[in-house]
Amino acid sequence: MRISEANWFEVERYLERDDRCVLPLGSTEQHAYLSLSVDSILSEKVGADAAEPLGVPVFPAVPYGLTPYFMGFPGSVSLRLTTYAALIRDILDSLYKTGFRRVLIVNGHGGNSPVQPVTMEWMEANEGARCRFHDWWRAPKTWACVQEIDPVASHASWMENFPWTRLPGRKMPDEQKPFVPFDKLRDRNAAGVRDLIGDGNYGGVYQKPDEDTERLWSVAVGETRALLEGDWS
Q: How far apart are alpha carbons 108 and 78 in whole angstroms?
């Protein structure tokens, strides 16, 4: 159940029998030739696909996150860590106040990881609150599937290139881009990051056959669903 496709009466009836929900976290940032909303699109869709047979509500993805290193690319938006931490805490507090107790955060952007202590503080402050933070793309089974298909994969490469993140009519390079030197990404500003990574792909081919990405997606959805329906005790 996507919250965007439900009314409050339906959510109230759901809460009479269950208290789980999915909160996707995304970002608005460069993804080379793919949509600037890749992380939001993927986190919400993998959450919705995982939750659909369970009837668990899925909230709209939070579309902005922590991405200061991409501010050299127009269209990217980054929040301050203090702003983002406060935003996530306000969302979690709202969910608790209206009756949700078990929250699966499906995160689509690695830069958002510093907000995880907020979930711990929230659980400590609210009786019965549970929160799982799930980086869907690097969960064990999903990442193992990436490695099986092609170990040269990273940000804005084939592993984020799905029919729902592609932009119609945009031609992509055919070659495999070498990995950027990650150690050099840590000590430079956004302009320096852009100079280093060029078009934004961190390394890997830009697109794989759909049968490869369909297999990856199936594993990711299954792994996400297992977290949602697993033991919360």
A: 15
Q: Cα–chain-centroid distance for residue 171?
A: 25
Amino acid at 15: L
- As a whole number of angstroms, the distance between CA 69 and CA 73 comes to 9
Summarised one tens digit per residue, pLDDT across range 187-214 is 999 999 999 999 999 999 999 999 999 9
Q: What is the CA radius of gyration of the chain?
A: 18
Residue showing tokens 């961190």: 202
Residue 60's domain comprises 3-229
Q: What CATH number corresponds to the domain at position 138?
A: 3.40.50.10310
Contact 139, 50 (CB under 8 A): no
Please give the model's pTM, rounded to 2 decimal places: 0.96
Complete DSSP assignment for 85-153:
HHHHHHHHHHHHHTT--EEEEEE--GGGGGGHHHHHHHHHHSTT-EEEEEEGGGSHHHHHHHHHH-S--
Q: Which helix (H) or strand (E) holds 23?
A: strand 20-25
